[in-house]
Amino acid sequence: MINFDDIFKQIKESTHTIHAIVSPLASNDLANVLLSLNQAPILAEYYKEVYEVTKNSHALLINLGTLNQSKLMGIKEGLKSAKENNIPIILDPVGASATKVRLETSLYYLKNYPIKVLKGNYSEIYSIYHKKLTTSGVDAKNIAKEEIIKICQDLATMYNTIVVASGKEDIISDGKETLLLKNGSPLLPKVTGTGCILGGIIAAAYSFEKNLNAIALAISILNIGAELAIKDKGMATFKISLLDQISLIDSKTIEERIIYEKL
Ligand SMILES: Nc1ncnc2c1ncn2[C@@H]1O[C@H](COP(=O)(O)OP(=O)(O)O)[C@@H](O)[C@H]1O
Ligand SMILES: Cc1ncsc1CCOP(=O)(O)O
After folding, report:
1. Alpha carbon of 190 to ligand 1 centroid (Å)
2. Global confidence as pTM
């Protein structure tokens, strides 16, 4: 049984600043989720201020969700600052399976910066590994779990990082240890931005403890929150109820409900 008491207490009792460069589509929900977990989100992407913001933060989340030239200039400053000031970088390569620019950008960041956590859906992780496009949009295609597990393990070793592949079952690997998490709801992929929110929770949890358990906690906050949310009143109610459940969840509930395997 994983014990989440200590890290959950740290998150709830002390506030870290999380610098998120994220798609505007998901930014409001992501910021509110972080606030509800007692964390301090800051969304800044103007290249003239990004270096300073990252330097004063506990983690930098880079989400490629909605790219443009000025955002890329901002991201470059954030990555430089994180590297020089030893701030952990969490990369969410949204759409890396769908466009050449996103795939090449993700590969460039992985090669040139110390990415501590790479978190994508199955297709994004598959595309980064095989260096080829596999989707036309941001959602994942069906790929065998066994294949993605091996890819996560190999990518983690190749880039000296923790790899998270989200989907019906979530995979977390640092190349040596691998966890498979089985909570969640089929409604989650029907709400846009839930993967982006997950990136934010991972960035916050990882800033407290730099290990697989912190990431397992982050995924469980979202997935068990979704299991507890209202599902029979339509998608808008589900989403609001999900945000409620995330703000109310405690470590005991997570420990009781988590379903996982150590591989
Ligand atoms: N079919 C599913 N059943 C249960 N949970 C799911 C399912 N698909 C995705 N999830 C959960 O939804 C969250 C977002 O994952 P995913 O949809 O893969 O990300 P993205 O939005 O980046 O494509 C994760 O916490 C994941 O565990
Ligand atoms: C629909 C869409 N288009 C560009 S980013 C985005 C949201 C993706 O968010 P998530 O992967 O978290 O569902």
Report:
1. 9
2. 0.97
